[in-house]
Amino acid sequence: NAGVTQTPKFQVLKTGQSMTLQCAQDMNHEYMSWYRQDPGMGLRLIHYSVGAGITDQGEVPNGYNVSRSTTEDFPLRLLSAAPSQTSVYFCASTPGGVLYGYTFGSGTRLTVV
Amino acid sequence: AQSVTQLGSHVSVSEGALVLLRCNYSSSVPPYLFWYVQYPNQGLQLLLKYTSAATLVKGINGFEAEFKKSETSFHLTKPSAHMSDAAEYFCAVSDPRTGGFKTIFGAGTRLFVKA
Predict the structure, then answer these.
(1) Interface contact A98-B44, CB threshold 8 A
(2) A98 and A48 Cβ atoms separated by less than 8 Å
(3) Which of B34, B100, B105 sits opposite A97 (nearest CB)?
(4) Residues of A with CB under 8 A from a CB of B
(5) Which residue has the higher pLDDT, B73 or A40?
(6) Which residues of A touch B90 (CB under 8 A)?
(7) Buried b (16+ CB within 10 A) or exposed e, A61-85
(8) B9/A40 Cβ within 8 A
(9) Size of interface A-B (CB pairs under 8 A)
């Protein structure tokens, strides 16, 4: 049981480039979320999904897009990378709302130069 | 709106000493509260959670936390620190009315354990 798998683990982008951060879970969890972690700021919610075909914005959605075509996958797209998007990105899932607590992936460290 | 404040970005204790990590929350409704731990280069792991049952909550690795409504606090404690407890700890709050999807995390407290 792999849990939540994020790829890649590290990425360097040039300003203006686009890319997709992949997130997959094999626990049949309905709810998935993307967070970014910055020093001294904890984790901030970017987007979340309560099931296939349903997504919504979190605290800091600007510059990011998501889609949820299957229960297993929840990719995060950066349309035009900016240095302010340099961060560590975490994907998390939970079976039925946060009552159960999140299971987190190991993160993607993104640097935009 | 909900918020979480963790008092102290760094806490240092000696091995065998009491661990106390402070968390205060703000919420207009009875919240769900969580503590997560993050080891270097890893994702967060759930330590324990409060979801309106017992106010004293026991978690993994000997940690526990007490929900005090009058003080709007949810401090994390462990009677005796071990070297393996060195990590960053995050307190989080969630609104049960929204299914908890917009969980708000504190800024984190890094715990150092001295031999």
Answers:
(1) no
(2) no
(3) B100
(4) 4, 31, 33, 35, 40-45, 48, 50, 56, 58-59, 90, 92, 97-99, 101-107
(5) B73
(6) 42-43
(7) beebebbbeebbebbbebeebeeeb
(8) yes
(9) 68
Residue B78 has pLDDT above 80, yes or no: yes
Per-residue pLDDT of chain A (113 residues; tens, 9 = 90+): 679 999 999 999 999 999 999 999 999 999 999 999 998 888 999 999 999 999 999 989 999 999 999 999 999 999 999 999 999 999 999 887 667 788 999 999 999 99
pLDDT in the model for residue B13: 97
Q: CB B105 to CB A42 under 8 A?
A: yes
Q: How many CA atoms, within 13 angstroms, populate the side-chain half-sphere of residue A25?
A: 27
Query: pLDDT tens for residues B35-68?
Result: 999 998 888 999 999 987 788 999 999 999 999 9
Reference A106, options A19, A51, A25; nearest CA is A25
Nearest CB to B105 within list A4, A43, A50: A43
Closest-CA residue to A32 (of A73, A79, A87): A73
User: Other CB atoms closer than 10 Å to residue B41's CB: what's the count?
Assistant: 10
Give one DSSP letter per residue of chain B, joined into a string: --EEEEE-SEEEEETTSPEEEEEEEE-SSPPEEEEEEE-TTS-EEEEEEE-SS-SEEE-GGG-EEEEETTTTEEEEEESS--GGG-EEEEEEEE-GGGTT-S-EE---EEEEEE-
